[in-house]
Amino acid sequence: MRLFVALDLPEAVRQAFRELISQLKKSCPNARWVRPEGIHVTLKFIGHTDENNVEPICAALAPIRSEQPVEMEFRGLGFFPHERRPRVLWCAVGASANLARLAADVVRALEPLGIPGEAREYVPHLTLARLEPEKISPAEFQKLERAAEEAAGSSFGSARESEFYLFESMLKPTGAEYRRVQAFPFAKGSV
User: Fold this and answer.
1) Which residues contact 34 (CB under 8 A, 6 or more apart)?
2) What span, in angstroms and rounded, lies between the C-alpha atoms of 128 and 23?
3) Which of 8, 31, 119, 144 has the smallest number of Cβ neighbours within 10 A?
4) Is residue 156 part of a domain?
5) Segment 119-164, tens digit of pLDDT
6) Catalytic choice (6, 24, 36, 40)
7) Would residue 190 count as lying in a domain?
């Protein structure tokens, strides 16, 4: 199984990204665009793991708590690692401070199970497209860059989340599909 831990999005936010991706796709049809129904805020990518590890993972995640739900706003577009060598088009996630703490708590809870922590600082974002330089011409990328700049100031909605999920990622020829394995209410009063 290929697993990750993430916050899901409300349908109104998902719809805003459906419309954005539909517009941006016209500029760069050769990018690998994510399916809007699969967009999520990753807290921790676990990767391939044996099915027997699901129960211990769930047991480790269950006690995680926060005083408040996580507040998020989705605004601004950018490229990872940077615009000169873009590999990913992403949307920024402005969030309450407890989002970073929640991600750190998830990492700490999983480390005793042999799931390594992260080498990089946690940067919440939503992946919108993966860019493979060999498949995208410079002219096509310039069109995407201009379209992204035009949409960069737009707000794509907000969310207030009090649950996170363990997801299974199933890789298919049509793209990754995600299945919720377990929900974890984490905000005080949501249990």
Assistant:
1) 21, 127, 128, 129, 130, 175
2) 12
3) 119
4) yes
5) 888 999 999 999 988 888 888 989 999 988 888 889 999 999 999 9
6) 40
7) no
Q: How far is CA 119 from CA 6, 91, 127, in A?
A: 18, 22, 19
127 assigned to some structural domain: yes
Average pLDDT over residues 81-101: 88
Taking only the tens place, the pLDDT of each residue in 39-54 is 999 999 999 999 999 9
Q: Tell me which residue range forms the domain holding 74.
A: 2-185
Catalytic hit among 125, 147, 161, 178: 125
40 is catalytic: yes
For residue 167, the domain's CATH number is 3.90.1140.10
125 tagged catalytic:
yes
